[in-house]
Amino acid sequence: MTPSTAPLITARGLEKAYGRTDALRGASLTLGAGEILAVTGASGSGKSTLLHCLAGIVTPDSGSVRYDGKQVENLSEAQRTELRRTDFGILFQFGQLIPELSAMDNVALPLLLAGVRRAAAHQQAADWLGKFGVYGQARLRPGEMSGGQAQRVSLARALVTGPKVVFADEPTGALDTLTGEQVMTTLVQSARESGCAVVLITHDAQVAAYADREVVLRDGVVKADEPWAAEHFSRAEVRGND
Ligand SMILES: Nc1ncnc2c1ncn2[C@@H]1O[C@H](COP(=O)(O)OP(=O)(O)OP(=O)(O)O)[C@@H](O)[C@H]1O
């Protein structure tokens, strides 16, 4: 079921406070290479903060994140930026496409920054826009698209460089059920083909069901960590104890 071997990411005892709000209170988890992990939990339970710590965007107050032999919190800002550029694909909750650029240019940009020639970058960007069903919007700027289209363009941008890990905050949040299923199928298929791991935040049990494993956060702590096939541990029970 899970194609993972040694952990690609190991997070231990992550704590993060914003002022008086404890967003994370000792969260720990592992992610295997090529593993698809769903992170679920109530609003405000710390999911986005956890994802941002794993991706090296936010530095935890304490605890550690180890990625591929590197201690992420010990890297310089420049090294972390480089890591995000080379190894990670990130889909933020609100897309964060560059408003002045077309969909095509937004998706091609990470490739151009990596030194890929313009024609090849645009060809790959076109392929990814096609996979996510938004090639027709290639010339549009984010403000000229629907939220769901912008979300799919953001996913294409997250995947275009062939990352080792994709971090996706609510990848189907702005999509109707059918489009959400199509997007999840494409995301999972692409990840399987390339051996890319995915950390996916979702409120939607149907979306979480695409994952190999689900972790449930509650009040900044991982409350349950279960493989999807674990029949002895019902998801309803986990949630029912709230
Ligand atoms: N930049 C910030 N400044 C202040 N407080 C923050 C910040 N980011 C998160 N928080 C707070 O930390 C807690 C955890 O937030 P986080 O966004 O990680 O939760 P979440 O589970 O992703 O929520 P949601 O499902 O609503 O997106 C919340 O109480 C939130 O208000």
TrEMBL record:
Membrane in keyword set: no
Pfam families referenced in this protein's UniProt entry, alphabetically: ABC_tran
GO molecular function, one term: ATP hydrolysis activity
Gene3D superfamilies assigned to the protein according to its UniProt record, in alphabetical order: P-loop containing nucleotide triphosphate hydrolases (3.40.50.300)
ABC transporter domain segment(s): 9-240
Domain of life per record: Bacteria
InterPro entries: AAA+_ATPase, ABC_transporter-like_ATP-bd, ABC_transporter-like_CS, ABC_transpr_LolD-like, MacB-like_ATP-bd, P-loop_NTPase
SUPFAM superfamilies: P-loop containing nucleoside triphosphate hydrolases
Keywords: ATP-binding, Nucleotide-binding, Transport
Coiled-coil regions listed: none
Record GO cellular component, one term: plasma membrane
Identification of the protein by name: ABC transporter ATP-binding protein
